[in-house]
Structure formats: C-alpha cells, structure tokens
Amino acid sequence: MSDVLQQLAATISARRSADSGSSYTRQLLDAGPQRCAKKLGEEAVEVVIAATSESDDALKGEAADLLYHLLVLLESRNVAIADVLAVLANRQGISGLQEKAGRASS
C-alpha cells in the first residue's frame, strides 16, 4: 500500500518540471503551499460528505482525491512521504490515547 503512495509522490515530484499548461499538479505546486492546503481542505470536506451521504464508490474516489492532494501539499513543503510514513511506523503499537498524551507533554 505504501508503495502506491510512494510511487504517486514520486510522480508528483516529477511534475515540478512538467509544462504548467498540461499539468494540474504543476499548477498546484506553482500556486504554493497555501493553495495546496486550501485544496486539501476542500477535498476533506468532500470526503466527509461522501462518508455520510454517498455510496462506497463515491467515498473511495473522494478518499483517493484527498490522498493525492495531501501528497501535493507535502511536495509543496518539501516533506517526503517516507518521513510521514516513518512517523506512522513509530506510532505502531502505541494506543492513540498514549500517543496523544505523549504529544501534550512534549
């Protein structure tokens, strides 16, 4: 599963040098992190709507869009998906309550 995310992240990174007239990803990256974050927020709302009132297929599509836009935002900030996955890996085996409590005390 993370291979798909890593491959998509590599494609998004490669789009930095694509023609902006033919690459939506390049247009987003050129617009900067604020625009990428706004688009991610819009996609998150669409996921919530799909989750509460649409089909499973609609939810899957919106979730895919959300992941794509998250990867674009990460790329716009030069944050590698591998670093995010490493954070998740470090959290494995720790309850969510413990993990949140640990963040509050740091």
UniProtKB/TrEMBL annotation:
Read off the CDD domains from this record: NTP-PPase_HisIE_like
EC number, as in UniProt: 3.6.1.31
Q: In which pathway does it act?
A: Amino-acid biosynthesis; L-histidine biosynthesis; L-histidine from 5-phospho-alpha-D-ribose 1-diphosphate: step 2/9
Q: Which GO terms describe its biological process?
A: L-histidine biosynthetic process
Enzymatic reactions: 1-(5-phospho-beta-D-ribosyl)-ATP + H2O = 1-(5-phospho-beta-D-ribosyl)-5'-AMP + diphosphate + H(+)
Location in or out of the cell: Cytoplasm
Give the UniProt keywords, A-Z: Amino-acid biosynthesis, ATP-binding, Cytoplasm, Histidine biosynthesis, Hydrolase, Nucleotide-binding
InterPro entries the UniProt entry points to: HisE (IPR008179), PRib-ATP_PPHydrolase-like (IPR021130)
Pfam families the UniProt entry points to? PRA-PH
- Similarity comment text for this entry: Belongs to the PRA-PH family.
Q: Which HAMAP family match?
A: HisE (MF_01020)
Protein known as: Phosphoribosyl-ATP pyrophosphatase
Primary gene name: hisE
